[in-house]
Amino acid sequence: MNKREFLKSMQGLILFFPAAGVLGALGVDVQAQEAAPAPPGTPDYNPQDHLYGMGIEIDKCIGCNRCVEACKAENDVPQDDFHYRTWVERYVIKKDGEVTVTNISRHSEAAREALPEDADVLRTFFVPKLCNQCVNPPCVQVCPVGATFSTEDGVVLVDANRCIGCSYCIQACPYGARYMNPKTHTADKCTFCYHRVRQGLLPACVEVCPTQARVFGDLRSKASRLVRFARMNKIHVLKPALNTEPKVYYAQLDGEVR
Amino acid sequence: MKIPEQVKRLLVVNAVLVGTALAIRFYVIPKDLVSTEVHRSTTVERELAKPVKFAGSETCVVCHEDEGTTKGKSFHRSLSCEGCHGPASGHAADPGAIKPPAPRDRKFCPVCHAYDASRPTGFPQINPTAHNPLKACIECHNPHDPSPPETPRACSACHAQIERTKAVSSHALLDCTTCHVTPELHKTSPRTALPSKPQSREFCATCHGNDSKQKDPPKVDITTHGTPYLCWQCHYPHLPEGR
Amino acid sequence: MTPEATAHLSELLAQVTGFIYPNEIEIHWSILIVVYPYITGLVAGAFILASLENVFNVEEVRPTYRLALLTAFSFMMVAPLPLLLHLGHPERFYEILLAPNLTSAMAMFGFVYGWYLVGVLLLEVWFEYRRDLILLSRRAPVPMRWFYRAASLFSTDISAAALAFDQKAIRIITIVGIPSAFLLHGYVGFIFGSVKANPWWSSVLIPIVFLMSAIVSGIALVIFLYMILAALRKEQVDMKCLDTITSYLFYAVIVDFTLEALDFTHRLYESEESVRILGSLIRQKLFLSLIVLQILLGMLVPLGLLIVAKWQKLSEDGRKLLYFTAVILIQVGIFSTRWNIVIGGQLFSKSFRGLMEYKMAIMGLEGFLTALLLLVLPFVVLAVLIKLLPTKPLMDEAHTPA
Asked: Which chain A residue has its CA at the smallest distance from C91's CA?
């Protein structure tokens, strides 16, 4: 079995047994190490040789919103409080079990104000959110015209020239990651900065994160920072029971995060 | 069997309608318009053609080598240049025409370094109102190598929030070092040398126990009061009358 | 974004309770998507009533057969409009027909709709009216004569054998049509029931609940129209027919109520992660539309009215009054059902931590007036259809049409 055939068969595995997707991808690395696939930005780039994902280390996030602002600037996301491709949530869990969550990416002073020390607080932390670029994306499943789809390298994109604006994908996304673009009247979402990644650059949010709370990488490359991240941390994904198989992996994720 | 007259008419009408629809779908409409592959590849192309606005630190250090070297050895080594200076692809393409901003006022640094309880422990945080008020951050700290110019004298430089809480409590007159043993190294390298914390009920009893030599503090019998809990499970030491 | 839209969303943001994902502030499926399943439900229900006479040989409901058929047909003509109007790009609607995504329930819309409209309703109407169209094409004055001739596809055979064949064809179409009607509305339910991200929608019972409530609303609508039409024409209402249909209505409401109660009890008993937020949703956002309008006024009161009408041996006028009140309340109830499902499902955050607010616009494409227009439109279409196609079979050659 040559490499290409092997990759093809892994592709089949991913389609039918998505749970094996990541493990399968790691398996490929072991097999394919004799000839590393062409990296992004080179003419020989073959999307099938790559599978992108993101790691987020909760204990490193300082809630500075650099990622949110970089994302809005890089991707022309409306500069208002109603449309985000990525945002940061603050969780405050009190001793009596009461959980308060706020979106600290809103532009209001109150949303961005620092949280003072409070003896009643059991634990508190920030959680960055974005499109999970699921292996089994419910948004892709329900799109009536096939305008949203997964690329071979594992990024869910929207064809703005084909989308009819029915909003079904927005209803189907369990993570609230999609919005209706007020300019184009089509569904819009995080693309992992596909235009940057395919040039060998990092997504804008990862680029500007001052504490490296966000790690971007190729699940099919043994040397990628993401694979190292997955090896060094116990990871978890959001809403695993829905079987969407997210490719955004969280380290130190608290059970209260939904 | 003879086909009834009305069925023949229906069949003709339906054949014409279905035939026209199929002909339009498969012959009149160009293949490109309905081909999923074509749509997807053009979407990818459109996506790839989008302008990159953040050039990436590797691009910056091509020209700004010195800043890159300084920053690379400092606490700020993992920071991207454009995290502070903003998206700079335009500047990289035409350095003379477009100058990226450099934040110089006191508003910017606290975005990351203001004290916030939700921030991970150990991340360097100050209280912007108490920490050298009215002075711009860059007067003391070089953003490309932000090590503090001098060792902080008081704990409140970093732990201002706790200081303020303590200041309105009955522990206001106690020094931090009354309870915490703080190695000198903690002031320059906070995470390598952590201050101690009291470990036992007996520690609080040195002031609050019945047989304490101190006159002022309220006294309890520690053999019965609140056993078997540790004192700080009920009394927050920086604001002990809280509960 | 327009300043008005920003102002609208800011206003909604102020009314959010708890935490919602930031993109959730916009309610994407508005009043128009409430109207859509309501209208399709009426189609399916009216058709099933029409089928009773053909497949199950319930002779009593014969007087409403044609009315039910025309009602189904006219509402079907309007059904896709609300869908079309709410799209961000209505002009791209053809994409759904040209290149449907086979894993999408919504992509099946074009085919289910097309099949039902052309393959079932139009065909059944044509066979039912062929004889009358031929008769009318002989009697009507000139411009209409051409219309009737074209509509009958220039068919001329009204021999007994040909008419017998028509009846046989209608029977076969109805037998195919009943599962098709189930498909039509069950499918609309599936669009909601299959959204696993939304616990308010995600339920296997939703398609069946949609179907039963469709039958309820369709039967109630035909009763309403039958009584109104009789009053307008100053004709006697056939009480035997009315009593029979209202019995069907009664049983349909019972089944519908049982199913909804089962769904509710099941959710409450299983008490999954989402139960708390759904509880607050019902208490804070849907109390009026769910508890008061849907369950109390839309189901329990009409059930009571029907029971009183049946078992108290009331006079004809008394029964008519109760029936009429009941069918109007049922329409209010079923409309609330659609509202509670469509809007209700968008009023809580998928983080299960907060509630949103929906403010219906009055003007505008997705506003109240458009919805009202879309609800009135089928009645206009029906009025035209009734003018063109008699609701009672024509007398033979010798008589002149009424």
From this structure: A164
> Measured between alpha carbons, how far is A138 from B114 in angstroms, rounded to an integer?
40
Q: Scanning every residue of chain A, which has its alpha carbon at the shortest distance from the alpha carbon of C88? A: A165
Q: Which long-range contacts (CB under 8 A, 24 or more apart) does C328-331 make?
A: C328/C224, C329/C297, C329/C298, C329/C301, C329/C302, C329/C305, C330/C216, C330/C217, C330/C220, C330/C249, C330/C253, C330/C298, C330/C299, C330/C302, C331/C217, C331/C220, C331/C221, C331/C224
Interface contact flag, B6 C162, Cβ < 8 Å = yes
Chain A CA closest to residue C108: A144
Put simply, the answer to whether B56 touches A117 (Cβ < 8 Å) is no
| DSSP classification of residue B76 | T
Residue C240 CB coordination number (10 Å): 12
Computed over its alpha carbons, how large is the radius of gyration of chain A? 19
> How far is CA C66 from its chain centroid?
17
Query: Which of C99, C123, C165 is nearest residue B34 as measured by Cβ atoms?
Result: C99
> Which residues of chain C does A83 touch, with a Cβ-Cβ cutoff of 8 Å?
22-23
- Specify whether the CB–CB gap between C100 and A145 falls below 8 A: yes
Q: Measured between CA atoms, how close is A20 to chain B, in angstroms? A: 25
What Rg do the C-alpha atoms of chain C give, in angstroms? 23
Whether C98 and chain B come into contact, CB under 8 Å, resolves to yes
pLDDT in tens, C310-357: 888 889 999 999 999 999 999 999 999 999 999 999 999 999 999 999
Max Cα distance, chain B (Å): 120
Residue A105 tokens, joined: 């990416």
For C29-47, b where at least 16 C-beta lie within 10 A, e where not — what string? bbbbbbbbbbbbbbbbbbb
CB distance B103 to A228 below 8 Å: no
Spell out the residues 6+ positions from residue C318 whose beta carbon is closer than 8 angstroms to its own.
C309
Least confident of B165-169, C36-40, C89-93: B165-169
Residue B64 CB coordination number (10 Å): 15
Pairs of CB atoms within 8 A across A/C: 147
Q: Please, which pLDDT band fits residue B214 given cuts at 50, 70 and 90?
A: confident
Where are the alpha helices (H) located in C349-397, listed in sequence order?
368-388
State whether A84 and C23 contact (CB < 8 Å).
yes
Note the pTM of the prediction, 2 decimals. Answer: 0.87
- Check C157 against B6: CB less than 8 A apart: yes
Nearest-by-Cβ selection for A198 from B39, B40, B48:
B48
Retrieve residue C131's tokens: 């004889």
Is the CB of C122 inside 8 Å of chain B's CB atoms? no
CA of B108: which chain A residue's CA is closest? A64
Q: Which residues pair with A222 in a beta bridge?
A: none
How far apart are the C-alpha atoms of C52 and C174, rounded to whole Å? 9
Q: Which residues, including other chains, have CB under 8 Å from residue B92's CB and lie 6 or more apart?
A: B55, B59, B60
What single DSSP character describes residue A116?
P
